[in-house]
Amino acid sequence: MAKGSSGRIVIEIVPEIKHELYEALDKEGLTLKQWFLTNAEVFLKNRGQMSLLPVEDGHVGKNHTVKAK
Asked: In whole angstroms, what is the distance from residue 1 CA to residue 54 CA?
């Protein structure tokens, strides 16, 4: 995947997941950008700490979502 120097992040996901995510975020009063930035910040802060989450092939489970405290 290309990593440009702009501030944009582009990913391709299954349309059904995209729809479900936007629907859930709307119910929480969040935008995708707000949700992503919150979760990215938590992930970066915690990446040096040991995790109690299950690990698959060296990565935290694919369906793991980090919730801000």
From this structure: 26
Over the Cα atoms of the chain, what is R_g? 14
Give the model confidence (pLDDT) of 43-52 as tens digits.
999 988 776 7
Stated pTM of the model: 0.63
- Residues 10-19: tens digit of each pLDDT: 999 999 999 9
The residues near 69 (Cβ < 8 Å, ≥ 6 apart) are 42
Backbone angles phi, psi at 25, to 5 degrees: -65, -40
What range defines the domain where residue 40 resides?
13-46
Tokens 């995708």, residue?
32
User: Structurally, how many domains does the chain consist of?
Assistant: 1
